[in-house]
Design goal:
alpha/beta, Aspartate Aminotransferase, domain 2, 7-stranded mixed sheet, 15 helices, globular, Aminotrans_3_PPA_site, 4-aminobutyrate:2-oxoglutarate transaminase activity
């Protein structure tokens, strides 16, 4: 049972049928008539799911360490969030959803200050709210482009020329700027048009879609165990930094910003050292280029810090930090007032986020603070990593390149038959996900405890001994 909420979640996994079972198969057939089910993982009964456990249509109960692709912070049917959802404030936000840029609610500043901005990264005191992670990154890119062109013109007081306004309507320069966003190989930043041009994780995301001519640098491919390859990894990271600087100085479509994930998630759970990211911050500042940190998947406590970039000890904060997933809302934080466009309606859409989702995030923040869940996740992550280390020593071919030490529960390893590994996990009561070509990634919720880690590791050992 959960230590945080009495009488809430099951005692453990319970697998009654094959997965998918007969009810799930029948329901999927019906759903497929009106909705594409080819990416379906598991047809879920959310009314019966609780805490760390997800329940399928046939009543199978699985320990969920995938958590809706890292998006559930406090467990299914969390009582504190249910209470927040039933409030008059939430009802008002849902049924009177405002066009925030034009008609923000009277208490919008208070909602932001007591929620989203309460956990703003150090040095960033403003926010642009958005709908999803891709949207957050896209609008951050727009802010970067407008900032750079405003700086080139000589400041916000300088008006647009007639040539700029006319050429913009024809998608031509100078109105349509010749600038780019630099991203990294294996990166994932979303599936919309701008964000997709910075996504480099899998061809399936990008095939047939027109893309911008934007540069990509090599993300460090570290060798594990880290302590046995320190000098080699330092050289790998320096080579990546040298490539970034070369592209900033020489790429034919000049980058105005660099976007980076603290841990490349969809691309295979690729890590780099704090020194690498400090070097990246130094390079971007030296060349007058913005640094955007994509915390869509790493943010909100999963790495043992509220924001993963807090591990880096940066001398200067990022220019923008994007967020979504565990926040249950989205947007980007910023501090520099020059990142506000010089005129209204330049950074704008109808919804510009959702007050109801902002209220959910506020309730999430309150529970994280009340239960000290960031420190809890750091402790449990150390416990889980230690158990996985011992498992990797016992079965080195099945648990390769274990990574994520000291990064909370944001842990991964490589398995040579990864897809079969993930499918087999369900037979042992575990819902788990993958990334990249061979990575098995752990994305448990912030309420994941040592006893859940014991269940998980026991199941993982059963998987590899059952082939």
């Amino acid at each position: 049972m959960s230590s945080f909420y009495s009488g809430w979640e099951p005692e453990g996994p319970s697998v009654k049928t094959e997965i998918p079972g007969p009810k799930a198969k029948a329901a999927t057939t019906v759903l497929n008539e009106v909705f594409d089910t080819r990416s379906l993982n598991m047809l879920t009964d959310y009314s019966r799911s609780a805490g760390n456990y997800i329940v399928d249509a046939d009543g199978n109960v699985l320990l969920d360490v995938y958590a809706q692709i890292a998006s559930i912070p406090l467990g299914y049917n969390n009582p504190a969030l249910r209470k927040a959802a039933q409030s008059d404030e939430m009802i008002n936000g849902l049924i009177n959803r405002p066009a925030l840029g034009n008609f923000p609610p009277l208490d919008w500043a208070e909602i932001l200050k007591t929620g989203i901005l309460k956990v703003a990264p150090k040095g960033l005191n403003q926010v642009f709210t958005a709908m999803a992670g891709s949207d957050a990154n896209e609008t951050a890119y727009k802010a970067a482009f407008m900032w750079r062109r405003q700086r080139d013109r000589g400041g916000p007081q300088v008006e647009f020329t007639e040539e700029e306004m006319q050429s913009a309507m024809e998608n031509k320069s100078p109105g349509a700027s010749q600038l780019s966003i630099l991203s990294f190989k294996s990166a994932f930043h979303g599936r919309l048009f701008g964000s997709l041009s910075t996504t480099r994780s899998k061809p399936i995301h990008k095939l047939d879609i027109p893309a911008f001519d934007w540069p990509q640098a090599t993300f460090p491919k570290l060798k594990y165990p880290l302590d046995e390859h320190a000098a080699e990894n330092a050289a790998i990271e320096q080579a990546a930094l040298d490539e970034v600087e070369h592209l900033i100085k020489n790429y034919h479509v000049p980058p105005c910003a660099v976007i980076v994930e603290p841990i490349q998630s969809e691309g295979g759970d690729n890590h780099a050292s704090p020194a690498f990211f400090r070097g990246l911050r130094e390079i971007t500042r030296r060349h007058g280029v913005l640094l955007i940190v994509d915390e869509v998947q790493t943010g909100v406590g999963a790495t043992g810090r509220f924001w993963a970039h807090e591990h880096w000890d940066l001398p200067h904060p990022p220019d923008m930090v994007t967020f979504s997933k565990k926040a249950q809302t989205a947007g980007y934080y910023f501090g520099n007032p020059e990142l506000r466009p010089n005129k209204p309606y330049r950074q704008f859409n109808t919804w510009m986020g959702d007050p109801a989702r902002a209220l959910v995030f506020r309730a999430i923040i309150d529970e994280i603070e009340r239960l000290d869940l960031v420190r809890h996740t750091a402790r449990v992550g150390d416990y889980l990593y230690g158990k996985l280390e011992r498992l990797a020593e016992k079965y080195p071919d099945e648990f390769q390149n274990l990574r994520g030490k000291g990064m909370g529960t944001f842990i991964a390893f490589d398995n040579p038959r990864r897809d079969a590994f993930l499918a087999r996990a369900k037979k042992f009561g575990i819902n788990i996900g993958g990334s990249g070509q061979s990575a098995v990634r752990l994305r448990p919720m912030l309420i994941f405890e040592e006893k859940h880690a014991d269940i998980l590791v026991d199941a993982l050992e059963k998987i590899v001994t059952s082939w």
